[in-house]
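Example with several molecule types.
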Amino acid sequence: MQARWPALLSRLCAGVLGGYAAAAVFAVWLSYVLPMPRADAVATGVLISFALYAGVIVYAFAAHSLRRLWFGVLGFTGFFALAALALRPAGAGW
Amino acid sequence: MKGAFRQSMGWLHTWTGLLVGWVLFFMFLTGTAGYFDTEIDSWMQPERPIVQNAMTATAAVDAGRQYLESNAPNAARWFIAVPSHRFPELRLFWRMSPDADGKRGRTGRARLDPETAAPLNYRDTGGGQLLYSMHWRLHYMPVRAAEWIVGVCTMFMLIAIVTGVIIHKRIFRDFFTLRFAKGQRSWLDAHNVLSVLALPFHLMITYSGLIFIAYVYMTPVITASYGTAADAQDSFFNELLRRTDGASPSGVAADLMPLRPMVLEAERQWGEGRVRFVEIRHPGDRDASVRIGHEWASPVRRPPTLTFNGANGELLRASDGIYSTPLAVRDVLLGLHEGLFAGPVLRWLYFLSGVMGTAMIGAGMILWTVKRRAKKGDAFGFKLVERLNVGTLAGLPVAVAAYFWANRLIPVDVAGRVAWEGHTMFIVWGVMLAHAFIRPSARAWVEQLWLAAAAFGLIPVLNGLTTDKHLGVTLPAGVWELAGVDLTMFAFGAAFAFAAIVLGRRGKTLKSGACHPGESRGPGPQARSRLDATAHGALDSGIRRNDGPIEGREVVRPNDRP
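Resulting structure tokens for the full complex:
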């Protein structure tokens, strides 16, 4: 991997910020689609969100190119954000 | 391609570990001590009589109720914790009714003698609880801020574990590989053995640590279902925990039924000595309820309970403590983290795993400096890490020992002595850090290790001079909770002395030829700088130059000979 600072910073942002967004959005989507009471679904989403977060951070430093990395992180987050938006129940916080 | 992947994972492992290593070391060390929190509590209150027969649950509820009725009438909630082996006192807790503005009522607590039910008059101390709570609350900062710092560091730890496993080729063989006195190899071996042996513990403790405050970090996920209202989190928890009662009382007075039959019913179902707590909501109201909880018996953190109607004594429902799978998974993770269910053997295993985790972090931090001393020994960053290592890896244990000394040496009647016990620990840590920056680092290591050896090793002596609960009494009486603290402290003292001897002796006997370039430490007596250099040789001896770091491409390569 490149040790140059801009590239490193880019990977850090993708992993730390993008990873958080990806994990949170995925957990929200999961909490909407799981066939269980909503409190249980939310709890399940939160339980596994950190595993996903860690996975994205690791991927951010493993991906071959920055373009692929950002495309992957933003694409993943965007996809589940849209899916969650379409599914959101009335009274949701967004 | 495979190589590049492992290289970048090695890079990530190195830097996530290094950046927050000192905080993680602090968290692991204080958290590990926390597995013996109540034992340390007892040790730190030597006025406590040695309890022979713990109070029975029925006697406890009678004594507890009597105290609460005269000291906290009209409370919204009473909580009576039944004395047990690890918590020998009768502990009471109450919360008053909300005031007119709907603010939560104030709370109170009391501890009573388990034999006479008289209020206790022991010295004020932070005890094991303060030490334990530092591992997630840190100290000198608001809880919310500490939670975020601890959370970020825990996330770093998770990344370090995941990448550590990825870069590790030979997990099985490393189980059996520990080569001594080979410098970098030995530090790497030690780091690997400590990591691999307790890997399940490290992974469990890290992930469950995140889960503890997950709802703080992942608030958006709750908001997305429950909205942004002020009580959104409350409604989430009420739904998750299937809370139905505990709302507002009826306002109609009714005498609380005797608690003893309810406790006896619980003991009939669970067995004698299995009741851990009795919780009464709205005592004196027609809607009063009495909830009886089972002792810690499994990693599931939420105990089985029986709930009775407080006004007529009728059994309302029995719960096994498992409400839903996600909640049970969470409860098991948190229960495993806390280890409250663990008996003596498992508790020691927890403690040893924690010690291994602490040592793993320490060995990793030392490995970072050993790998780089030859090439970057003069760089500012290197020196900073090296000094912080001495002041933390050796200095923090000294500070923890000082916390124990403060408990015995600060006079019992000094106001604010709890705060000063804590201050003592952090003042000593500060002094150790300053010492590490002032002294040549090789000498700072040896000096602080000797100090740690003395500070821990003499604790049983200090205890013998200041109390009547010393080894001479506790060993013959078989009071292992107290004797164990003294003996463990002595064992730590011996371990630090061993480390100091090894480091000091090798520093003297190694030829200066073992010294590395870049080792010059500025002007100073020739002899002293040679001693420094050779002591470093002791840390580093056996380093293979061609294993050295490649700029930006360091890979931790266990046993990977080219």
